[in-house]
């Protein structure tokens, strides 16, 4: 156990975690607005999820893309959990991970989060700055 504590508190590990934290913070500042602006206006207007963009691809390509997207989501989830105790945007990074990962009820959770008034105002503001219309939540 002492060996593990020694490794985790070594300067190399601390610097690596600090750099990862800064990269995650800067990446989230760039990635979130970029993604929010690219959400189709009617993405949340239906109760059911829309078809994924690569659904028409060859099954092997779909599988590879799905695995890569979920692996990236796991990396973001782990980084977010680490950033809860280190400097960085832990909750924001976990939120990005949730949108990348596939799990039952994901679309309903996304829709509920985006319908929250504070999130909706922020998203509408970002979309307005990019010249895009606000998201619709018609049913």
Tell me what the structure shows.
By secondary structure, the protein is an all-alpha fold. It has one domain. Helix content is 67%, strand content 0%. The protein has helices at residues 2-8, 11-37, 59-83, 90-100, 106-115, 117-129. The termini are far apart.
N- and C-termini, Cα separation: 55 Å
> What is the approximate shape?
globular
Radius of gyration: 18 Å
Helix content bin? 55-70%
Number of strands: 0
Write down the overall mean pLDDT. Answer: 81
What's the short story on this structure?
By secondary structure, the chain is mainly α.
What labels describe this entry?
139 residues, mainly alpha, 67% helix, 0% strand
How do the strands and helices of this protein lay out in sequence?
Elements: H1 2-8, H2 11-37, H3 59-83, H4 90-100, H5 106-115, H6 117-129
Helix pairs in contact: 3-4
């Amino acid at each position: 156990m002492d060996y593990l504590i020694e490794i985790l508190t070594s300067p190399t590990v601390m610097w690596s975690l600090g750099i990862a934290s800064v990269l995650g913070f800067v990446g989230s500042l760039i990635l979130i607005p970029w993604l929010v602006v690219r959400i189709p206006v009617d993405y949340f207007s239906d109760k059911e999820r829309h078809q994924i963009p690569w659904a028409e691809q060859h099954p092997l390509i779909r599988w590879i893309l799905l695995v890569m997207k979920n692996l990236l989501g796991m990396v973001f989830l782990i980084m977010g959990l680490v950033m809860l105790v280190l400097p960085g945007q832990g909750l924001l990074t976990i939120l990005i991970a949730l949108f990348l990962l596939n799990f039952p009820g994901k679309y309903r959770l996304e829709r509920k989060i985006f319908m929250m008034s504070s999130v909706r105002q922020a998203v509408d503001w970002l979309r307005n700055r990019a010249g895009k219309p606000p998201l619709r939540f018609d049913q």
